[in-house]
């Protein structure tokens, strides 16, 4: 049903904005240069560009930060012009199945994103330069690649670069709002001044960063999108020595509530929790080797899924590099196979913009190859149902599902957008903890672990004792997880009802109970003691 | 007498622009704070094993403005920053952690996070905490380095120069403060925008930009010998660059810089546009010019080119630490009192000089980065080597610093140039130099010689592992025929070896010219000035410039298209 709704949204957007290119300097410059590139960009005896994409991003920022109650210098956004950044990528000739790093294998001529002055002429000029460099580079690569294929006698493994229905998405872009400087400077100063109350802290800083990135995309097939992303964040940083002499630098960064009237209360609450964690960590015990049931709180669950599942569902196409064709993804051939516990289903929802009053980072109506992004039901009842794909198709796939994402210096790759890990039968957290204790007793353990997040000296966990339920904070552990060993995904026995937006802001998941996990203690020696007494 | 008058006048003017004020060290809060925290740390650190025997803090408050225009767009950036660098010496002046290990290149990097991200002086407690934390890291690193130095000193062969590793800088106090100038952004924008219109749509301009930058620093320096200094420094520059690429992949560039003390010294719009127009004409001419061929011939380096030549070919080899560290080629080590270059030339480095012929000099500074007062040094007199540029790292025969220890970023200071000037007691006019060039071409029976009007920069190898050669990239070269005809050529670089080249000076002009720039070396990027007159060489060698594998774009510039909605 949800998937159906998502499709309706895309179709509606397409009809509403059908072929109406927004009228602004970014689209005028992109469209004018695109038309010229399509018609005229050609090297004799070489194929014309197969696909061209232009992207312009214009960032706006306003930052307020303070350390131990002292404001850091403020950069007045009205005196700091942020230039739009232009990038061009192109597929030329035989260009499917390229490793995203294929270019680096052959050439150092990669064209990076460039910041340009904000004018039609500057945009045109840079699009011209970048298109030229990209076409020359990709043409050269196509020839080199053909030679590699001949030498290796490599056959094509997959279908051609596929066609896709037209996709358009246009959203009005509001002017970036400058926040009240006096209010936020006072707030960040006060929040960071809390650090002075904690004798063991060697530094405590806080930062509010309000950002908006205006995004413009146009490709050679007439697909386009115009939207904006907002990143409003609170970052907290603390440095201290724990009782064993390890220097710990903790950093926590989180999305601010969409409703800005709630920001102050949110910041006070989160900074208090952060400082409370530093207090726990300062007096925590060092971990020892442990094997047994573990309750992972949402932050820790995010790390768990990131390592075991998320890294395995992306970059789904086979690629050709100088080392030959290789599969970057071992799950491609496991569609309809059981890969994890039936306790949770996994969804990818590119069209969802917010969760519980916070913005989701993965919102993507049109992907980096001009395809309308579709919602996916990735894991259902423990079975893998579908994977994010791009225009270079994988076996059994007819069309891209619009999950091409482009990272700096790389060609678009199949990637997730907003991932939701939804329990079938969510349990209240208290019940989850009781279940942990039950497992602990069954295995005749003295205590079990609740991991809050992180690892190594920065990790924070609690030992919960079976005898009386008392808890001790613990640091210095490393969960034994590896992307190549997905087995622990089957050991999830229950999940909580505390659905939480992860620190990466594109994953939403609850606490999970894993029946069996190994934790190794860190081997690092403590840092040197201070020569001079802290001032 | 007259010169002294001019200098005094100029100094007063500059002080007025920068609104600099003398102050009392004892009343300067940042200095007091830095000094007290340094002494608190040093009291304990000097008792450690191995002991810290010298400690210094450099703290800078930096404010910057950058405005750039190109292709009908203008962008502006204005921000402030502050940073601290901690210098720790462990061991003793005789042997410390900075000793260059024989057979290895020395480590000039200071603790990378010696930069304090949140260093602010408004809250003494927060600032002290940051200083304390950075000092801890710096001492940890210095002690590690010292262990390595001890191990090496016991196992490696003895160095030829057994001088100490450090000489304590004399105790100094100095207090002068200024606030950053207020920049009239709109005035600058208007000038840049007017300049940026000229290259627009020119088929022989592939890229260009016109920019203005202003940096104001309030520098603070304290050390464990009791030195306490604070003084301002500022640089203001207007710059334009125009570039193109030829069909054979050669990148061409024309540029001009205006180093000024205040906005009042900005060129008039009329002058600025005339300069850009002239540079555009030169770029067009260069684009059409024939590529030159490798050749050795009489060559006249015009003032700016000669200034870069002196800097690269001679200046770096006169830096003190290169005479001691055996990784370097030590071209002039042990040659004091001997003729090393043409007797026509005298080389002086005088960082105390603020202006030359009305132009503000980027290489000027009051105190070096080791807290030593800057002073003029005669390096070469009538071709005879007299002295070296010295930091607080002594070398045989030169036990003290002469105020040339400089650094940029988180690096250890080494001897660097400040305001280097080449002069001569026997000069001729530029016209006579050109005449002498033609005579020399005829005398040698060469088909042509060269006039190098401008150099963009260059580099020189100073380590033993590399040949002792230099390469200077030309911006504008003329081929001069025996009949006096001149033809612009492109794609030639000057190459050679220092001892040979500097002994081929035939005549020196009286047209002293300033080349202001920045120089990057072991101790980071520092601002510098080089002043030289035109110099005629009996021969210099030219080699072909490296070309890019990239051709000019397949399509013409979109800005040459007519019409269209912008």
Question: What would your notes on this structure say?
Answer:
- The complex is a heterodimer of chains A (535) and B (566).
- By secondary structure, chain A is of the alpha+beta class.
- Chain A has a domain at 19-236: PmbA/TldD fold, CATH 3.30.2290.
- Chain A is globular and about 80 Å long.
- In chain A, 25% of the residues lie in helices and 30% in strands.
- Chain A has helices spanning 2-16, 25-40, 102-106, 120-152, 181-193, 263-282, 298-313, 429-442; strands at 49-67, 70-71, 85-92, 114-115, 168-170, 201-219, 224-241, 247-255, 285-286, 290-296, 318-321, 324-327, 344-348, 354-355, 358-359, 376-380, 383-384, 404-405, 413-414, 419-423, 447-453, 460-465, 471-475, 477-479, 492-495, 500-501, 507-509, 512-521.
- The longest helix of chain A is centred in the N-terminal third of the chain and has 33 residues, at 120-152.
- Chain B is built from 9 helices and 26 strands.
- In chain B, the strands form 5 sheets. In chain B, strands 1, 2, 3, 4, 5, 6 and 7 form a 7-stranded mixed sheet that branches. In chain B, strands 14-13-10-17-25-24 form a 6-stranded mixed sheet. A 5-stranded mixed beta barrel of chain B has the order 9-19-20-22-26.
- Chain B has 566 residues and is of the alpha+beta class.
- At the A-B interface, helix 2, strand 2, helix 4 and strand 6 of A face helix 2, strand 2, strand 3 and helix 3 of B.
């Amino acid at each position: 049903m949800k998937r159906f709704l998502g499709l309706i949204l895309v179709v509606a957007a397409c009809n509403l904005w059908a072929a109406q290119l927004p009228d602004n300097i970014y689209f005028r410059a992109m469209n004018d240069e695109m038309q010229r590139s399509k018609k005229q960009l050609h090297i004799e005896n070489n194929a014309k560009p197969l696909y061209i994409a232009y992207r312009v991003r214009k960032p706006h920022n306003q930052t307020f930060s303070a350390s131990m109650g002292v404001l850091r210098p403020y950069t007045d956004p009205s005196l700091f012009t942020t230039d739009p950044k232009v990038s061009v990528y192109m597929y030329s000739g035989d260009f499917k199945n390229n490793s995203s790093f294929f270019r680096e294998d052959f050439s150092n001529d990669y064209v990076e994103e460039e910041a340009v002055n904000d004018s039609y002429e500057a945009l045109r000029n840079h699009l011209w330069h970048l298109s030229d460099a990209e076409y020359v580079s990709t043409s050269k690569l196509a020839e080199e690649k053909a030679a590699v294929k001949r030498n290796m006698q490599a056959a094509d493994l997959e279908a051609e670069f596929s066609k896709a229905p037209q996709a358009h998405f246009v959203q009005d872009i509001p002017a970036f709002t400058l926040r009240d400087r006096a209010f936020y400077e006072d707030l960040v100063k006060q929040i960071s001044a809390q650090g002075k109350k904690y004798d063991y802290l060697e530094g405590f800083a806080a930062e509010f960063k309000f950002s908006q990135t205006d995004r413009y995309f146009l490709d050679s097939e007439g697909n386009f999108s115009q939207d904006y992303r907002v990143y409003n964040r609170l970052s907290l940083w603390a440095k201290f020595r724990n009782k064993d002499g390890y220097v710990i630098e903790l950093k926590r960064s989180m999305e601010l509530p969409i409703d800005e009237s709630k920001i102050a209360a949110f910041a006070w609450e989160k900074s208090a929790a952060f400082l409370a964690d530093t207090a726990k960590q300062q007096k925590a015990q060092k971990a020892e080797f442990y094997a047994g049931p573990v309750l992972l709180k949402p932050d820790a669950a995010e790390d768990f899924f990131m390592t075991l599942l998320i890294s395995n569902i992306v970059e789904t196409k086979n690629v050709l590099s100088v080392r030959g064709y290789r599969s970057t993804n071992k799950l491609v051939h496991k569609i309809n196979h059981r890969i994890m516990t039936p306790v949770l289903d996994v969804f990818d929802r590119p069209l969802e913009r917010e969760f519980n009053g916070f913005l989701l980072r993965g919102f993507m109506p049109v992907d980096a190859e001009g395809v309308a992004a579709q919602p996916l039901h990735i894991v259902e009842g423990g079975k893998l149902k579908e994977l994010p794909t791009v225009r270079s198709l994988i076996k059994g796939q007819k069309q891209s599902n619009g999950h091409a994402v482009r990272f700096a210096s790389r060609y678009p790759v199949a990637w997730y957008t907003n991932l939701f890990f939804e329990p079938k039968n969510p349990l209240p957290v208290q019940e989850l903890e009781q279940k942990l204790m039950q497992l602990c007793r069954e295995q005749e353990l003295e205590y079990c672990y609740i991991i809050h997040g992180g690892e190594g000296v920065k990790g924070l966990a609690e030992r919960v004792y079976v005898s009386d339920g008392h808890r001790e904070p613990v640091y210095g552990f490393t969960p034994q997880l590896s992307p190549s060993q997905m087995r622990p995904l089957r050991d999830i026995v229950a999940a909580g009802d505390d659905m939480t937006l992860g620190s990466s802001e594109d994953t939403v998941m609850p606490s999970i109970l894993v029946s069996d996990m190994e934790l190794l203690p860190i081997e690092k020696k403590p840092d040197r003691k201070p020569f001079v007494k802290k001032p | 007498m007259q010169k002294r008058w001019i200098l005094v006048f100029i100094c007063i003017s500059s002080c007025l622009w920068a609104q600099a004020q003398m102050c009392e060290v004892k009343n300067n809060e940042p200095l007091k704070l830095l000094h007290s925290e340094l002494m608190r740390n040093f009291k304990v650190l000097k008792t450690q094993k191995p002991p810290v025997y010298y400690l210094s803090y450099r703290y800078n408050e930096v404010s910057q403005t950058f405005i750039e225009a190109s292709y009908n767009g203008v962008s502006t950036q204005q921000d402030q920053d502050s940073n601290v660098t901690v210098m720790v010496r462990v061991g003793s002046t005789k042997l410390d952690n900075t000793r260059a290990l024989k057979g290895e290149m020395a480590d000039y990097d200071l603790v990378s996070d010696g930069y304090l991200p949140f260093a602010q002086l408004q809250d003494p407690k927060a600032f002290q905490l940051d200083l304390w934390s950075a000092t801890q890291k710096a001492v940890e690193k210095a002690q590690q380095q010292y262990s390595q130095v001890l191990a090496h000193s016991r196992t490696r062969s003895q160095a030829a120069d057994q001088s100490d590793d450090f000489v304590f800088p004399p105790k100094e106090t100095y207090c002068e403060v200024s606030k950053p100038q207020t920049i009239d952004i709109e005035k600058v924008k208007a000038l840049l925008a007017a300049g940026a219109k000229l290259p627009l749509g020119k088929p022989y301009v592939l890229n260009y930009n016109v920019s203005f930058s202003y940096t104001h620093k309030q520098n603070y320096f304290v050390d464990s010998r009791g030195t306490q200094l604070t003084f301002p420094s500022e640089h203001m520059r207007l710059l334009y660059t125009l570039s193109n690429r030829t069909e054979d992949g050669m990148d061409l560039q024309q540029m001009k810089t205006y180093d000024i003390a205040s906005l009042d010294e900005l060129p008039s719009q009329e002058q600025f546009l005339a300069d850009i127009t002239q540079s555009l004409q030169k770029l067009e001419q260069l684009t059409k010019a024939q590529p030159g061929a490798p050749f050795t011939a009489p060559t006249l380096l015009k003032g700016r080119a000669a200034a870069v030549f002196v800097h690269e070919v001679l200046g770096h080899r006169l830096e003190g630490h290169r005479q001691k560290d055996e990784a370097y080629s030590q071209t002039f080590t042990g040659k004091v009192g001997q003729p090393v270059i043409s007797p026509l030339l005298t080389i002086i480095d005088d960082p105390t000089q603020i202006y030359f012929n009305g132009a503000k000099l980027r290489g000027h500074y009051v105190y070096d980065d080791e807290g030593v007062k800057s002073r003029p040094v005669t390096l070469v007199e009538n071709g005879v080597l007299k002295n070296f540029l010295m930091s607080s790292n002594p070398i045989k025969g030169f036990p003290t610093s002469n105020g040339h220890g400089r650094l940029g970023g988180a690096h250890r200071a080494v001897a660097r140039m400040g305001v280097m000037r080449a002069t001569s007691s026997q000069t001729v006019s530029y016209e006579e130099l050109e005449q002498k060039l033609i005579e020399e071409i005829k005398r040698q029976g060469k088909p042509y010689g060269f006039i190098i009007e401008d150099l963009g920069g260059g580099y020189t190898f100073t380590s033993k592992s590399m040949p002792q050669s230099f390469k200077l990239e030309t911006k504008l070269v003329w081929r001069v025929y025996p009949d006096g005809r001149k033809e612009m050529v492109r794609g030639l670089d000057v190459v050679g070896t220092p001892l040979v080249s500097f002994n081929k000076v035939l005549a020196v002009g009286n047209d002293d010219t300033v080349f202001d720039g920045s120089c990057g070396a072991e101790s980071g990027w520092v601002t510098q000035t080089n002043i030289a007159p035109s110099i005629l060489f009996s021969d210099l060698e030219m080699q072909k410039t490296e070309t890019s594998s990239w051709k000019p774009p397949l399509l013409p510039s979109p800005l040459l298209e007519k019409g269209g909605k912008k």
